[in-house]
Every structure is written in C-alpha cells, then in structure tokens.
Write a structure and sequence with these properties.
By secondary structure, the protein is an alpha/beta fold. It has one domain. It has nine helices and eleven strands. The strands form three sheets. A seven-stranded mixed β-sheet has the order 1-9-8-2-5-3-4. A two-stranded antiparallel ribbon has the order 6-7. The chain has a two-stranded antiparallel sheet with strand order 10-11. The longest helix is centred in the N-terminal third of the chain and has 25 residues.
C-alpha cells in the first residue's frame, strides 16, 4: 500500500517540476478551488475560524469568499512548493525578494555567524523559507519537522527538501542532533509556531481567543543566547513571494531574561498582524483554537 502511494505522488512531482512555475501556480489554485467544493470538513473549519476572527469586520458573504480564496492560495502554495524545491538558486532569486536581511550585514563574513532563531508560520509558499537568499554565507539554515506517517511519502518529501541545502531535524527523534548543531554555531533555525501545540503549550490569546502556543522559539533563543525573529512569507503575485525578516523580538530587558510567556505573546502579536495584512495568505483550515482536553476524574469502583 505504501508503494502504491509513492508511485502516483512521484509522478505528480515529476510533472509539476517539468511545468513553468506560473502554470503550476494556476493549476494549484484550481485544485484548491475544487477541494473547497468537496472537502466539507475543512471548509467548515476555515469558515468557522474566519468568522470568529473577522465577524465584526466582514459580512458572511465576504468571509465565505475569503475562505474560497484561502483554499486557492493553499493549493497554489503546495503546488508551487513542489516546483520551487527543484529550482536553482538563480531561478529562486527571480521570484523571491527579501526584506530585513540588512540587519545581518555585520555577520556576512563571520565564520560561523551567531545562531539565530526564526519563528515562522504557514504563510504563502512556506517551503521557500529554506531557499532564503541574502543571508550570511557561512550561516547554515535549519528547520524542524514531523515525519509523515507513510514512510515512502516521507522519503519523497525528504528527497525534495534535501536539494535546498537546509538541515532538517525530526522533532521527536533528532533532539540530540539539533543540540549538537546549535552548539557548533552559525545555525539559522526556523521553528513553525502557528499551530496547536497540545496541552503542553502555553495558553495565549490569538485573534482574541485563547489557544495553545509552542514555546520552542523562546526556549531556543534563551537557551542558546541568540536573537529571535518573526519571519513571514508574503505572496506578491502568482508565483512570486517576499520574505520579511522582522526586527528581533526582545528576549532580555536590562540584562534579565524575559518570561517565555511574554516573548511568545510578542511573537503571536506579530503573526496576527501579518495575517491581518493578507488574511487569505494563512492556513485557516487548521483548528488553531482547540479547547483544553478535559481531565478524566478517577472514581473508586463501587
């Protein structure tokens, strides 16, 4: 069964990587539109989330139209990710612009530069974070991920990502390897932090509602004494993106470390601001606001 999944997936990847980027993007938008029509569960999740976030600012029709565009954008993002994984650095440079990299200018010739932590989210073509250009030449880009359940699809995903030169660490199994890489210095580590973090996450407000937030960006920045930046992938047009490196989130005040909760509140605020700039550019089909799990109360048997 695993092999039967791999063959059509590999064929689709091969076809997508043969086609021009603009055509791939438009096909992805069409697929996203079709998914909106047939995937009732995720359609309801997106509309529910958008309504909770924008009910006071948008009509029901506007929210539904925004949900439709969100599905198109998600389809476009996934399709383009497959294509951009196979593109050369020169080709990427033509479709990707960078903002905020001037703040790393003093580290361009450092070998290695200092570690940095990037709080990233599911914006636009989020796989293109790994292809960021204009960073210090001796910096090593890295990210964490969670392996797919299907081994062959996970292997295919790893093969595609390996072309970027970015280091990838599996969250559950590669903690020791990631620690060693951070201790070597020069690691620019991207950590996705805009999804439900389970019962172990902090409960913080996001669009006025409490949700579970990963503490990983703050924890790594504090543990390794390095700057923490929010980084957003903005969509500039069909098959065009702009990555914006925000100024560092303060991790210390007057030489004293800030609380993890305070740091992640600032990160959440910057993520929310980016979403408000272009609501269709984010991953609304994820249930970001899951309630706490009810603890089972043990009772003595009669």
């Amino acid at each position: 069964m695993d092999f039967l999944l791999y063959v059509p997936a590999r064929l689709l990847v091969w076809i997508a990587q043969l086609l021009p980027l603009g055509l791939v993007a438009r096909i992805g938008r069409l697929v996203g539109r079709l998914v909106y029509l047939i995937d009732a569960r995720h359609r309801r999740v997106a509309i529910k989330n958008l309504t909770a976030a924008f009910a006071d600012e948008m009509s029901e029709d506007a929210i539904r139209n925004l949900a439709k565009e969100n599905f198109r954008r998600i389809g476009e993002g996934f399709a383009c990710a497959i294509k951009t994984m196979s593109m050369t650095g020169e080709q990427i440079h033509k479709v990707l612009t960078m903002e905020g990299v001037d703040q790393f200018a003093d580290e361009m010739d450092d070998n290695p530069p200092q570690n940095r932590v990037f709080a990233i989210g599911h914006f636009g073509n989020f796989e293109i974070y790994a292809r960021s250009n204009g960073l210090p030449k001796h910096a090593r880009s890295a990210a964490t991920y969670r392996a797919l359940r299907q081994p062959s699809l996970n292997r295919l995903h790893a093969e595609l990502r390996s072309k970027s030169g970015c280091l990838f660490f599996e969250r559950r199994h590669d903690a020791r390897k990631l620690k060693e890489a951070m201790n070597q210095g020069g690691l620019y580590l991207g950590l996705l932090c805009d999804q439900h973090a389970g019962d172990r996450g902090l409960r913080l407000p996001f669009f006025g509602r409490e949700c579970s937030v990963s503490t990983a960006p703050a924890v790594f920045a504090l543990r390794y004494h390095c700057p923490l930046h929010v980084v957003i992938c903005h969509r500039e047009g069909v098959g065009r993106w702009r990555i914006h490196f925000h100024d560092p989130v303060p991790t210390h005040i007057d030489g004293k470390a800030r609380e993890t909760e305070a740091i992640m509140r600032d990160v959440n605020a910057e993520l929310e601001e980016a979403i408000r700039q272009d609501p269709a550019n984010w991953f609304w089909v994820h249930n970001r606001w899951k309630p706490r799990k009810k603890k089972k109360v043990k009772t003595d048997a009669p």
